[in-house]
């Protein structure tokens, strides 16, 4: 039975892109690997040219602390099979000052881990009359008691920096409007649930666009549910069709949160479980499919060898860039 089922899945995977070839989500979906999730490069993001991330540090101290950790994190990726054409490249301070938007800025923090996804082009503060331009940034910190964890976490953030999203936020694994399907999501177990939802109407929490159901609503108020709920399907790319199920989750992905992350009790109370309520631990190394995802992304037609940056006349942002760079 199991093998028959696999054949059916295989056949459907094989014909699906052909059947739906006209849809933009699927036009380039000719991949044989069954799992991963990445950004759809476009107006908001790009991929790093030549799959190389130029790095700048916010201080010499940050460099001393994080250089070795970031390189160790890259070695985890290479050990998982990532080609060495994917790389970090330390550039000199002058180059960092002159090209702040064409490199990734390493910021040392006390307790924050975060990274921009891919290479963000420009971000506009909504409602404001002038663009707020943020440098592409990766935020890291060191747990000196647990260097293995620190390196693994840096590897996760580098997955984001190259363009991968969280495995569990693949909309294929969720029902419509953030409903449970492959996973069970216990939003009320998030450590900031009580604080965030205090005084809210029931519908603003649990309704279709509530902060426990809709990633945009969650992100707007800085709720940690934004790191769990499914991404907006039109913003992402995955070879999964909408009917993906449990066996299609890459349980070994370094981009998959463990069940107990962000919980009110990280030892006993899960935030996300499988449908049968079982839980999983986090992965300490990138998986084969994490590597396959990055390779597919950078082999795709979106991976331009040369980018029109907004200080480039070919960029749609050129006029805007000129306008504001002259104000400075
Ligand atoms: Zn992450």
Automatic annotation (TrEMBL):
Signal sequence segment: 1-21
GO molecular function annotation: metallopeptidase activity
Transmembrane segments: none
Species, as recorded: Aspergillus ibericus CBS 121593
Record keywords, A-Z: Signal
Identification of the protein by name: Metalloendopeptidase
Coiled coil: none
């Amino acid at each position: 039975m199991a093998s028959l089922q696999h054949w059916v899945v295989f056949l459907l995977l094989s014909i699906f892109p052909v059947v739906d070839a006209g849809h933009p989500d699927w036009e380039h979906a000719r991949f044989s690997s069954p799992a991963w999730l990445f950004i759809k490069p476009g107006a908001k993001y790009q991929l790093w040219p030549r799959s190389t991330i130029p790095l700048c540090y916010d201080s010499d101290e940050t460099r001393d602390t994080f250089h070795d950790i970031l390189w160790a994190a890259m070695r985890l990726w290479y050990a998982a099979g990532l080609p060495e054409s994917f790389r970090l490249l330390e550039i000199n301070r002058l180059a960092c000052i002159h090209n702040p938007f064409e490199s990734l800025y390493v910021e040392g923090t006390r307790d924050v881990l975060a990274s921009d996804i891919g290479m963000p082009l420009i971000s506009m503060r909504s409602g404001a009359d002038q663009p707020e331009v943020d440098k592409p940034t990766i935020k890291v910190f060191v747990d000196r008691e647990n260097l293995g964890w620190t390196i693994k976490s840096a590897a996760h953030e580098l997955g984001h920096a190259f363009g991968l999203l969280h495995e569990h936020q693949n909309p294929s694994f969720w029902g419509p409007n953030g409903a449970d399907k492959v996973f069970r999501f216990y939003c009320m177990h998030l450590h900031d649930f009580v604080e965030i939802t205090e005084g809210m109407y029931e519908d603003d929490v649990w309704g279709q666009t509530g902060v426990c159901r809709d990633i945009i609503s969650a992100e707007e108020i800085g709720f940690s549910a934004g790191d769990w709920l499914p991404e907006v399907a039109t913003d992402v790319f995955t070879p999964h069709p909408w009917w993906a199920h449990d066996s299609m989750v890459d349980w070994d992905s370094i981009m998959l949160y463990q069940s107990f992350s962000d919980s009110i009790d990280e030892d006993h109370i899960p935030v996300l479980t499988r449908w049968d309520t079982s839980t999983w631990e986090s992965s300490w190394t990138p998986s084969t499919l994490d590597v396959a995802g990055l390779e597919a992304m950078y082999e795709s037609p979106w991976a331009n060898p040369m980018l029109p940056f907004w200080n480039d006349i070919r960029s749609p942002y050129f006029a805007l860039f000129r306008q504001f760079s002259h104000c400075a």
